[in-house]
Amino acid sequence: AAQWKGLIETYRSYLPVSDTTPVVTLLEGNTPLIPVPYISEQVGRGVKVFVKYDGLNPTGSFKDRGMTMAISKAKELGAQAVICASTGNTSASAAAYAKRAGMRAFVMIPDGYVALGKLAQALLYGAEVIAIDGNFDEALRIVRQLSENYPVTLVNSVNPYRLEGQKTAAFEVVDALGNAPDWLCVPVGNAGNITAYWMGFCEYHQQKYCDRLPKMMGFQAAGSAPLVAGKPILHPETLATAIRIGNPANWEKAIAVKEASLGAFNSVTDEDILDAYQILAAHEGIFCEPASAASVAGLLKLKDEVPSHGTVVCVLTGNGLKDPDSAIRVSNNAVKSVIPDLAVVAELMGF
Ligand code: F0G
């Protein structure tokens, strides 16, 4: 098979690029759509569940789909620096792509609420990391203003090129299934991803690559669920720090997606999220980060509403390696240390 050339080359005719756009790519995209038989069984009634494992992108999250576009366009327009607010994944992705493009990368994070792997990435990629004693929403407000007043391009999902790149995940889902699923379950923070998926499904539907559209099911953590509450949350809380967001940047778009797709926003508790996180790892062999497991937690919560024999895709937005602290804390498992002796080890193993 021909080598995968990244999502801009693959979906060029659907993207706002020209022959002169400098393509900044790490060959993101082309992530697997993995069947999850144990979870399918839990849902029951012949429902088939798949996960779109976008944690297998080059920096370990779906953000790379948007960032290849945002950074390529920033470079085309002559930018020398980019900036984002981030709960961690956007900062890692922005740093990687900006550095590859020879730009400065400024990232603003909520101090103490970014998972260790994400911080490690941003630092090693060479981003200029600024932590504030405040949450994501406050950081976004500041970086928006910085980008309006100084020569630095904003690469949060309010940058339209981000959504253009991210919509390719929906193309891949349809290409893999041969149609759109009945439900698309996705964790929601700023609601950029749910908006982008919907754009992708609608474009493919128009091209007749699918003959239906999915219900878009967005899930927020209970302590950070503004779209469920119908109003911004001033002090969002959840251990799924990636989606610890109280005032989604794409609020109106999210509501439009919900209405057009006959979908819904629901909340899942941190306990539900951690249960799904553990089920994915211990029953399916799939390691995602806690925020990503909100999609599966949501499906399990609403499983009786899925049409019998339907198809559901849950988006796993980030890799589990991003957040080793959560994994170790939640695993309820521990390393057993022994002396290097055959008999002692065999006894420990129960033989
Ligand atoms: N899942 C993960 C792992 C994320 O990192 C994010 C967002 C989301 C889901 C939600 O996506 O914002 O498009 O609704 N992370 C952003 C960041 C906020 O800074 O990395 P969304």
Automatic annotation (TrEMBL):
Pfam families: PALP (PF00291). It is an enzyme of class 4 (lyase). GO terms for biological process: isoleucine biosynthetic process; L-serine catabolic process; L-threonine catabolic process; threonine biosynthetic process. Its EC number is 4.2.3.1. Pyridoxal 5'-phosphate binds at residues 89, 189-193, 317. PROSITE patterns: DEHYDRATASE_SER_THR, RHODANESE_3. The modification N6-(pyridoxal phosphate)lysine is found at residue 63. Residues 82-125 form the Rhodanese domain. It comes from the Bacteria. The keyword Amino-acid biosynthesis applies. Keywords: Amino-acid biosynthesis, Lyase, Pyridoxal phosphate, Threonine biosynthesis. GO terms for molecular function: L-serine ammonia-lyase activity; pyridoxal phosphate binding; threonine deaminase activity; threonine synthase activity. It catalyses: O-phospho-L-homoserine + H2O = L-threonine + phosphate. Catalyzes the gamma-elimination of phosphate from L-phosphohomoserine and the beta-addition of water to produce L-threonine. Belongs to the threonine synthase family. This is Threonine synthase. It comes from Aphanothece hegewaldii CCALA 016. The lineage of its organism: Bacteria, Bacillati, Cyanobacteriota, Cyanophyceae, Oscillatoriophycideae.
